[in-house]
Structure formats: C-alpha cells, structure tokens
C-alpha cells in the first residue's frame, strides 16, 4: 500500500471482527513506533502488547469510546478490540511525552492500516485502574494512551465539514468524519 493511500484512507474504527491479530504483526507495529521521529532523539516511550484474550477482556472496561456517538459508538461484546498496545512514557528518560506519543501512535495506526488492521487511539482511560492491572508504578511510567486494534467490522470515511466537527453514523451505519477543507486549513503568509 502506498503511504499516501494509508494517510488518506485510515479512519478510526470502533467495531472489530473477532479474528485474532498475528503476534508478528503486533511486533511490526512496535518496530514502526520505535523508528519514528522523536525530539532530540530521546525515545522515551515504552510499549506493551496486550493480546491474550483474558487480559484484553480486562482492559476494555477501562476504555471510553466515541464521545459523539453515545448510543452506538461503544463496541458491544463480539465487536471489541482483539488486542491493545499501551504507550508508556519512561520517566527515567524525560517527563513530557505528548509529541512522542503522537509520532508513535500515528506510525502504528498507519502501519496497521497497511496490514488491514484498524485502530482506535484511546485517550479516555481509567489510568489508575489500568496501571494496577498492568502492575506498573507511576513512579516509573506514565500511561499515555492505548491503541485498540482489530480487523474492521464497520466502515468510516472522511467527509467535508460544514457546520460541525462531530462524526456521525449515516443510514448505512458508515461513520462519517467531518474534516476541514484545504481552503480552510491552508493559510498564506503575506509577502
Ligand atoms: C489523542 C487522541 C485521543 C483519542 N481518544 C479517543 C477515545 O478515548 N475514545 C475514542 O473512541 N476515540 C478517541 N480518539 C479518536 C478520535 O475521536 C478520532 O481520531 C477523530 O474523531 C478523527 O477520526 P479519524 O481518526 O477517523 O480521522 C482519540 C484521538 C486522539 C488523537
């Protein structure tokens, strides 16, 4: 797949088939994140793969989904992610991780898309409970995000934004994600 195709077509997916993701594919995603661009090349992130069915089930209750689709946005049993990658900041290296997390998660989402694997970047998390579940200490690591993964069981597409940024489900159950137009996002500096 061309990089440009993944960049244009990747959309957040929140419903998944229950086909498991091969371990090697998950390892590949870590490889893409490991090689991303990081400020001063500090590389302060750590990654944890959660793919055994029992732990995957335990993570789900600590994740929140689709704020704009309270009725239909949260995956039901049988539609839930089959794996997660937790993105952690290693406090022994530095103490701010937002830019780094953006680079890492973007690389993983695009690399996953190329493999036919869909994702949802999750920031709305019960971090305290998840840290306990993962048995990691806040002294050592910050739990930044979780990337939910699985093969897609819904369609999502970008559409032109008119009056709202809220994504919505259409009559075919396709998610439509309003994006600002090129005209709106492109500014020219005065000469
Ligand atoms: C930092 C960050 C946190 C996010 N957290 C959540 C979340 O907690 N739950 C969720 O369902 N989606 C979450 N998303 C997904 C966004 O809602 C989604 O990227 C946005 O609606 C645009 O859709 P697209 O990814 O298909 O372009 C998050 C995205 C980002 C970048």
Short description:
With 191 residues, this protein is of the alpha+beta class. 29% of the residues lie in helices and 21% in strands. The chain folds into 2 domains: 3-154, NADH Oxidase (3-Layer(aba) Sandwich), CATH 3.40.109; 155-191, putative fmn-dependent nitroreductase like domains (putative fmn-dependent nitroreductase like fold, Single Sheet), CATH 2.20.180.10.
Tell me what you see in this structure.
The chain has helices spanning 3-9, 23-34, 53-59, 98-114, 127-134, 182-185; strands at residues 45-50, 83-90, 118-122, 141-150, 156-160, 168-169, 175-179. It is of the alpha+beta class and 191 residues long. The model has no long low-confidence stretch (mean pLDDT 98). It contains six helices and seven strands; from the N terminus they run ααβαβαβαββββα. 29% of the residues lie in helices and 21% in strands. It folds into two domains: 3-154, NADH Oxidase; 155-191, putative fmn-dependent nitroreductase like domains (putative fmn-dependent nitroreductase like fold). α2 packs across α4 (98-114). The radius of gyration is 17 Å and the shape is globular. The strands form two sheets. The protein has a four-stranded antiparallel sheet, with helices on both faces.
What is the element layout, followed by pairings?
Blueprint: H1 3-9, H2 23-34, E1 45-50, H3 53-59, E2 83-90, H4 98-114, E3 118-122, H5 127-134, E4 141-150, E5 156-160, E6 168-169, E7 175-179, H6 182-185
Parallel strand pairs: 5-7
Antiparallel strand pairs: 1-2, 2-4, 3-4, 6-7
Helix pairs in contact: 2-4
The structure holds flavin mononucleotide.
């Amino acid at each position: 797949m061309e990089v440009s195709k993944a960049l244009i077509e990747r959309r957040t997916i929140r419903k998944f088939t229950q086909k498991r993701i091969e371990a090697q594919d998950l390892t590949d995603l870590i490889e893409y994140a490991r090689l991303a661009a990081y400020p001063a090349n500090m590389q302060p992130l750590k990654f944890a793969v959660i793919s055994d069915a029992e732990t995957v089930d335990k993570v789900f209750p600590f994740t929140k989904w689709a704020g704009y689709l309270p009725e239909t946005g949260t995956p039901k049993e049988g539609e839930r992610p089959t794996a997660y990658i937790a993105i952690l900041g290693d406090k022994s290296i530095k103490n701010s991780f937002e830019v780094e997390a953006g680079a890492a998660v973007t690389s993983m989402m695009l690399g996953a898309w190329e493999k036919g694997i869909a994702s949802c970047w999750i920031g709305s998390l019960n971090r305290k409970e998840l840290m306990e579940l993962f048995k990691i200490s806040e002294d050592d690591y910050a739990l930044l995000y979780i990337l939910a993964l699985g093969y897609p069981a819904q369609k999502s597409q970008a559409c032109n934004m008119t009056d709202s940024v809220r994504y919505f489900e259409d009559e075919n159950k396709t998610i439509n994600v309003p994006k600002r137009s090129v005209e709106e996002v492109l500014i020219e500096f005065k000469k």
